[in-house]
Each structure stands twice: as C-alpha cells, then as structure tokens.
Specification:
By secondary structure, this protein is mainly α. The chain has one domain. The chain has helices at residues 3-31, 33-54, 73-114, 126-143. The protein is globular, with a radius of gyration of 18 Å.
C-alpha cells in the first residue's frame, strides 16, 4: 500500500474511532460501562472470527511465540473502550478524544524515547517538545 493509501486508511480509522466513541457513550449511558464494553468486544470478536474463517494462511497458532507482555493488549483495549464510553458523555466527543489523543502522543514519545515494549528508540528532541507544547495549548482551548 502506498503513502496515499496509508493516509486514507488512517483517516478511516480516525473517523471510526470517534464514531465508536459516540456509540459507546450512548451504550454506556443505557447499559452501564462493563456491559457496553462486553457488547463492543463481543461484536468485534464475531467480526474478526468471520474474517478469519474467510481468510486462508493465518498464523494464530504462533501466539505462543510473541513476548508475554503483548498479550496485555486485550486488557489495554478494555481500558481504552471503557474510558471512551465513560469520558465522551462527560466531555463530548471532541473534548474527550482531544484529551485521549494528546495523552497518546505524550505516552508515545516516552515509549519511543526509552524503547519501552520493544519499540525502536527514537530520541526526544526539541521539535517534539515544541510539538507537544503546542498540542497542549490546543487541548486547553478545545476542552475549556
């Protein structure tokens, strides 16, 4: 996939995240946070199961070869989905995702800088500091 395709896919993913956030907010208010997370994961598991059934050449049996800590991604996903369902009704879609995404950038810079969780080391530098500072100004303007 070329650069344009990757950017297009990122845009689709970005739209899907905020749409899911609003859907989770509605579900969480009607059902409760744990119930909405369960339904979201159940629906996702069913969709992926169908995709895997239609695909050939998968390698699910190799899950024992990945580092043990990568299996925590499911727990991280539960935290993400639960947080979105709780935060969006209280801060709005834009406000909630502004804080979530800004936090992702800060955490991402730290993971890159220290090479945590198997990441390639990408040192923290002045342009990244300026970018994070400008982003925090934007967060303040969007969430106030």
């Amino acid at each position: 996939m070329g650069s344009i395709g990757v950017l297009g896919l990122a845009i689709i993913g970005g739209i899907a995240i905020v749409v899911q956030g609003q859907l989770m907010a509605v579900m969480t208010q009607a059902l409760g946070p744990l119930e909405s997370v369960f339904i979201t994961y159940w629906g996702g598991a069913m969709a992926v199961g169908l995709m895997m059934a239609g695909a050939r050449g998968g390698n699910l049996s190799a899950f024992t070869t990945v580092p043990w800590y990568t299996l925590g991604s499911g727990l991280a996903g539960l935290i993400i989905i639960g947080t979105i369902g709780y935060v969006v009704p209280r801060l709005g879609v834009a406000g909630g995702f502004t804080v979530i995404v800004a936090t992702q950038f800060v955490a991402g810079v730290m993971i890159d800088h220290y090479g945590w969780l198997g990441a390639v080391v990408r040192p923290f530098d002045l342009p990244k500091l300026i970018g994070l500072g400008l982003m925090m100004i934007g967060v303040t303007l969007l969430v106030r």
